[in-house]
């Protein structure tokens, strides 16, 4: 029986790249996103995939997503929590509604998706959960309070889930991407690439390959940790001339 991966936020960007990678590895993939048009378009190009319209802020949508996946494919082996939004706004002007929307989309959804997927994984005998955090979990620019808090919360959620789900043979890890260009890579400037030890800005494929690594059964000794994928950018000292 083919393995099954669920990817949230799969209609575009990193989520789309992750969904494509698992399809190429022979997985049956469930694409979840609130954008039905783009999500259906991605699913139509990928073999062995289905799209399930999902608002990850809604618990009932997540429960339906996991139930549909289990019924359609019979199992869930991998969950990649990618769905996320950002609001960069003067903290003195940030509304509670905007704060809650970011937290519920980025952090609460990761908990709810993990909880529901783990119920199926337990019955399967195990699985892997990967949460997409961010280097902004540990470093910030002004006016990023909601986003940074949500991503920092994901790191805490990750090691807590790893502890709780170990008895079910479910590994839980986080990936913290740095600068990953998802729209127009060709428009980047030489100085953009030069900010990285690796000499380039990242792509969704860089994150997708890491997901494949973390979810491979041979790598189940990697558990409860954060994998930073940023081309070395957060380790590079910057001085203004």
Automatic annotation (TrEMBL):
Domain of life where this protein originates: Bacteria
InterPro entries: NAD(P)-bd_dom_sf (IPR036291), Sc_DH/Rdtase_CS (IPR020904), SDR_fam (IPR002347)
Family: Belongs to the short-chain dehydrogenases/reductases (SDR) family.
Oxidoreductase keyword on record: yes
Name this protein carries in UniProt: SDR family oxidoreductase
Gene3D superfamilies given in the database record: NAD(P)-binding Rossmann-like Domain
Keywords: Oxidoreductase
Record-linked Pfam families: adh_short_C2 (PF13561)
């Amino acid at each position: 029986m083919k393995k099954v991966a669920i990817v949230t936020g799969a209609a575009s960007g990193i989520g789309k790249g992750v969904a494509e990678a698992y399809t190429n590895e022979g997985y049956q993939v469930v694409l979840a996103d609130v954008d039905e048009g783009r999500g259906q378009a991605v699913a139509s190009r990928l073999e062995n995939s289905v799209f399930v319209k999902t608002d990850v802020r809604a618990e009932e949508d997540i429960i339906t997503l996991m139930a549909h996946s289990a019924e359609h494919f019979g199992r869930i082996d991998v969950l990649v929590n990618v769905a996320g939004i950002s609001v960069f706004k003067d903290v003195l002007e940030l509304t509670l509604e905007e704060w809650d929307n970011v937290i519920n989309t980025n952090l609460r959804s990761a908990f709810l998706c993990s909880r529901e997927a783990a119920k199926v994984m337990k019955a399967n005998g195990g699985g892997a959960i990967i949460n997409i955090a961010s280097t902004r979990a540990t470093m910030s620019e002004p006016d990023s309070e909601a986003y940074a808090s949500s991503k920092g919360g994901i790191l805490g959620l990750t090691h807590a889930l790893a502890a709780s789900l170990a008895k079910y043979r479910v590994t839980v890890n986080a990936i913290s991407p740095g600068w990953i260009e998802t729209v127009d890579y060709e428009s980047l400037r030489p100085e953009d690439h030069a900010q990285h030890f690796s000499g380039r800005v990242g792509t969704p494929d860089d994150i997708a390959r890491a997901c494949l690594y973390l979810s491979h059964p041979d790598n189940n000794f990697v558990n409860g940790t954060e994998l930073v994928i940023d081309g070395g950018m957060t380790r590079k000292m910057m001085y203004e001339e």
